[in-house]
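Per-residue structure
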Amino acid sequence: MHVIHPPKLSDAAADDDDSPEVLRTYQAWKGSNKFFLGGRFIFGPDVGSVFLSICLIVAPVAVFCAFVARKLIDDFSHHLGVLILVVVIAFTFYVIILLLMTSGRDPGIIPRNAHPPQPETMDLGMEVGPGQTPQLRLPRVKEVIVNGMTVKVKYCDTCMLYRPPRCSHCSICDNCVERFDHHCPWVGQCIGRRNYRFFFMFVSSATLLCVYVLSFCWVYVIRIMHSENTSVWGALIKTPASIVLIIYTFLSVWFVGGLTVFHLYLISTNQSTYENFRYRYDRSENPYNRGIFGNFKEVFWTSIPPSKNNFRAMVQREPKPPTRVSGGSFINSNNEKIPIEPVEIDGVKPQWKNEATAGGGKRRSSLGRSGSWDLESEAASVTGIGYSDRMSRGGSSGSLGGSLEVPVK
């Protein structure tokens, strides 16, 4: 009688190795981010700076409570002295919560494509020998119409997608971020579309906290002057903690207060920090400007879009990345056609400009993604968008007057 023996452990292990490994999205994440609590919080690679910022906030407030606010409790009637202590503690917790909301959330990361878009443009710059097929090449730059102005969007080699308007690739976090403002080392996170509101609230609230501590330090010094009939310097000598706090908060007000004023200007003109330093909209028309009221409404009174990433979703580890060929052209590892869906912005799907193409056939967009990701509501400030298949050779020529370049790392 023929007996079938059970498989050996080594054979079972080999079968397990052949099966795709299933992980959560944050475990297979290709960026440089740090995740906590099973992917519920996402930080930048410099997350340690968050704890430094918390110490820079809590330490002076603790000194203020111990050596200044506690002394003022009995100097004000009707328990107003206790209110000074309660307000500074509550306001400190509020500032720290805003810091964590800025640092621990998805700033607007656009998911990477699993494969590059299907190349469509013939690389006319390459010499083709007899019997050889011209090589297809991805255009490095495409043109987008934003409020009647031409804006150039660039292809991201790392994320394998065309960046939407106002999007840039952060070299620190290694992600493409919507409405990229800057990477803030003090919060250890990129500042983008989904956390800019909390960043501004954090900076402005920290400014008010500094002003609050600075003001009551001077109140305490003045009380010492009147009670002991001494000069300002004599009163300051009697409270060295106030001297340290006055110097510290005075310098801090210039820093966080300056940031608050600067970002008020950026919000009123609907610019990001990156755009302000790179494009200088004061010398050209800003296609995203909706007027002062509309710009403030966009930042503070519009709903924050949901994250395009489900960091706790189960995914399979990719076996290998697609093969890249030098010269800017790509070869897909599985030679399959990648379905492309047009980007829908504010409920309006963009249309490609009708331009003459080789062979006169219809062209489809290279802006898209394989898989289940649907890029929706790319930029809340964009009201009408159209895409052009024009290719800029070398990434610099071929632009129209007034065109803008989307940031590239």
User: Anything to note?
Assistant: Confidence is low (pLDDT under 50) at residues 1-7, 9-15, 325-409. Helices lie at 9-18, 48-72, 80-103, 196-228, 232-238, 240-269, 273-278, 292-300. Residues 22-125+133-405 form one domain.
